[in-house]
Every structure is written in structure tokens, then in C-alpha cells.
Amino acid sequence: LAWYATSPDREVFLKTVQEFRHIIEPEATAFAAMRRTGEQMAEISQACREMGEATTLQERTRADTRFHLAILRASGNDLLEQMTRVVYTALVVSFRTTSRLPGSARRSLPKHRAVLRAITARKPVQAHAAMRSLVANTAREIGELPARGPGPSVRLTGGPQELTLYLSGRRSAARVDITGPEEARAIIESA
Q1: Cα–Cα distance between 186 and 178 in angstroms, integer?
Q2: What are the pLDDT digits (tens) for 115-126?
Q3: Whole-angstrom distance, CA of residue 191 vs CA of residue 187
């Protein structure tokens, strides 16, 4: 997904991410409210607290991503747990984009806290509704983003086996070259 996130069709990518989130996250959050362990609840709570304490975009994005991934893991669904690696890049790009909007962090934190309260109280219906509201809010913000032309892109080069290694998460073993603007390369390298 990292290559798609930096493609010229970034707006399309962001809308695709929001559709995916709309389909998956409310249901996963309802399951998390029913199945979460104390340790998982602590991880979700800590991430939400760190979102409120964040002073930089990077801190905020990291905490926001951890919050959502912790909920997916707490759903108790093995397939969703495996999907967290795929979802990670999409969430990072989405959160980095919307967090740059004026007032976005201030507006979204209460919605995250509503999700947290519902999971803490083990109320799946409320957890579902709270996450649905949060995702809908993010989709609205993405819809309000100014249109832009083609964005930065990167080129990932290497032999087929090296690219497969890299894309399957074995980056340190892969011999690939990443070229392009620094910001775009950072997205690829941090995914």
C-alpha cells in the first residue's frame, strides 16, 4: 500500500482507505468491546492518552495509529490481527493528511475518547456507533481537502525476488533502491 499512498491519485487512495475503515473498524470495535483483555485495554487507553498529550504531528500520528491498530488486535479476530500490517500504512497516510487540517486534532480527540469509553464499558453497540462517527468525521475532513495535482512519487527498484522480500516485510534482507522526494521515501520506509 505504501506505493499507492504516494501515487498521483492520493485523493482516490484516501477515499479508498476511508471506505475500508467504514466497512471494518466499527465492527472490529464492537468485537473489541466484547473481547478485549485488560492488557489490550491498557494499550488502547495509553494510545488515546498519548494522542491528547502529543505536541507534534509525528507524535499524534504515531499515537492515533497505535489506537486504531490496538482496537483491531483487541477484536480477537485472527484475520484482522494479520491485516494490521497492511492497514498500518493506510492509517499513517490518512492520519498524517487529516492531522494537518486546522483544528482536526481538537475535533477528533473527543470522538476517540467516546470510542475508548464504550470499549472500556464493554458496550459493543455504543463502541460501534462511536467508531462509525469517528470514521465518518475523518471521511468528511478528507472530502474537504483542497484538490491537488499529482503528488510526490517514489520508485522502488530491484530484482523480483528482492522486491518480494522488501514488500513482505524482510526489508533488511532485501537489496532494493528507493528514489524520490524525501517525504515520499519516508512514508515507504516507515510503513
Answers
A1: 10
A2: 999 999 999 999
A3: 6
